[in-house]
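Need Histidinol dehydrogenase's 3D structure for a figure. Predict it.
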Amino acid sequence: MLKKINYGDKEAFAKVLEDRNVSVDPKITMTVLEILQKVKEEKDDALSFYTSKFDGVVIEDILVTQEEMDKAMSLVDDEFISILEDAKRNIELYHKKQLKEGYEIVEADDVYLGQRVLPLQRVGIYVPGGSAAYPSTVLMDVIPAKIANVDEIIMVTPPQKDGSVNPFILASAKVAGVDKIYKVGGAQAIGALAYGTQTIPKVDKVVGPGNVYVAEAKKLVYGQVDIDMIAGPSEILVIADKDANPSFVAADLMSQAEHDTMASSILVTTSEQLVEEVEKELEKQIQELSRTSIMEQSFANYGYVIVASTIEEAIEISNEIAPEHLELMVKNPKDYLPLVRNAGSVFLGYYTCESIGDYFGGTNHVLPTNGTARFYSPLGVDSFMKKSSYLHWSKEALQKEGAKIIRFAKQEGLDAHANAVRVRI
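Structure prediction for Histidinol dehydrogenase:
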């Protein structure tokens, strides 16, 4: 089920990396550009047109009312609400530690300079609907923004065929503290957040996962607004030693394969015997689960196993791949953590399955994919804050150092810069 490759075979290993670089069809880009332009020009009328076209529903008022929120809460069982609240507490506990403060440096001659750390004023959260309705994503996107003290959090999500919103999505939004929710999805929702319409205000940043049209729209509006990242298909890389339970390994590989036929599941192990046992477990467990065909296609497309000589070499392989999720299913996993350079989130030990992080553990599940863990970070409080610097120089300080600044400006051929100092001294 998993394709076995040798790390020493650089050509085969390079293919593992290449396989994950999924390019966007130019036709999709052109379609998204057309949608964005129509939203920019026609605003709410464009949203109505595309909601009717793509979602098959006509909605008079896209703002979710309090009555709709109350109805959704009544449809969700108390046990699940309690679970959402518990997950919220764990996510808050982890993310509150990420809060940063500014600083100030005071020098002689009444010179002082510093940095301010400020929350964004308004952010937009995109939440998929339909079969890909994930309440956990609402918590992961909204809670760090709340901790950052963002003024207003707006959520957009596509309506269901009856014009309503998935009640579990609304319940999670209520628990997380979303300010306003609009029933609109797809690239048109991203356009509305980026440009503003008569109903939906323009935001400073757009975050949240979506299909290829949503991802392309986020890419195209970047610069008009900030975005979190361009998320690709889900990924997991499991590093397992000879003592790892093959049942656990197989289960964790499938936990990502069930997302998408494009999802990537890679096992790197020091044990040939474990490979055989994991294969048997995959064949057994996959028949007991509901998304069998998706998982089988995912493994056929992007399922790999690599045998390494040591755990250190296995981590070297992982660092090259830079996976979204990395599981260190080895003895004394924390001893190896300093060797990990490139991974969105790391899960330590035999019992810390990635699913814990997806829902309940507290770490964020909005993570860099497609090798971008080499330079991107998980979504967090920093994602919803910006920094601004300030500087004060007195007359005495400028008279003392002004000639140096004039020389610097002249060296760059910028006489007006030099003159701005000269007229003061």
